[in-house]
Backbone:
């Protein structure tokens, strides 16, 4: 791990502490090697297998396991959100789960402070990028890209599809040869298809949770804090004694 990444992780953990949050669902930096070298050895908390590996080897998540996993994932993302950060690379590989079902968000290499005065951050994995992030639009809120990525991850882990839910192409991400509205229309079709599958497999509330997170208009999309209060999680709040929920 490079020194810059270690410093970033330390800043994030300090910001979480300063805002009264907890790191129940965040992989913690336990220890760091000393010295002035640009390369550091970091001892990170063990979080288990990532969701991609777990779903491939154990099958798609469903029922209470799906709900518990994504309640905790949403809490981890909300912890960052309240500390003033976005992760910018939420995807199955960056969400860990151990054999006790505890979930941890990991890999903060792309995380940045939320700053509406700065240009849209376009780092991350294209298949999980929101429309406004794909096109680097500046006239949209910049604080709900992680919500979109969480919604895509939720559908992928539940449905067990071999490919990502949203069919992002080079024309959308790199070349921008495809007009923005055309790209949104394609993503809307994929979104509707995933919604119908989720409703059939997991029911209306699970499907609506996905739908609310993947709203193309970020002004109407759920924030991480709002995601935790979605009716899908009504019966799980009493099972988790998590601090800092809005």
Residues:
């Amino acid at each position: 791990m490079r020194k810059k990444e270690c410093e970033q992780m330390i800043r994030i953990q300090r910001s979480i502490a300063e805002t009264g949050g907890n790191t129940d669902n965040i992989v913690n930096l336990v220890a760091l090697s000393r010295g002035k070298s640009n390369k550091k050895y970091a001892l990170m908390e063990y979080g288990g297998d990532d969701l991609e590996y777990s779903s491939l080897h154990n099958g798609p998540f469903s029922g209470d396991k799906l709900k518990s996993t994504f309640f905790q994932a949403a809490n981890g993302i909300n912890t960052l959100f309240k500390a003033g950060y976005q992760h910018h690379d939420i995807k199955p590989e960056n969400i860990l789960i151990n054999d006790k079902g505890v979930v941890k968000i990991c890999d903060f290499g792309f995380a940045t402070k939320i700053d509406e005065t700065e240009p849209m951050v376009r780092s991350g994995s294209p298949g999980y990028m929101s429309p406004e992030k794909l096109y680097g639009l500046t006239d949209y809120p910049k604080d709900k890209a992680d919500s979109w990525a969480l919604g895509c991850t939720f559908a992928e882990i539940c449905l067990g599809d071999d490919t990502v839910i949203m069919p992002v192409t080079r024309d959308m991400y790199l070349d921008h040869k495809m007009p923005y509205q055309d790209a949104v229309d394609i993503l809307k079709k994929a979104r509707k298809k995933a919604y119908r599958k989720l409703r059939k497999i997991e029911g209306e509330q699970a499907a609506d949770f996905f739908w609310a997170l993947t709203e193309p208009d970020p002004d109407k999309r759920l924030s991480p804090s709002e995601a935790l209060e979605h009716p899908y999680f009504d019966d799980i709040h009493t099972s988790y004694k998590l601090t800092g929920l809005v």
Residues 242-246 have pLDDT under 50 and may be disordered. The chain has one domain: 47-239.
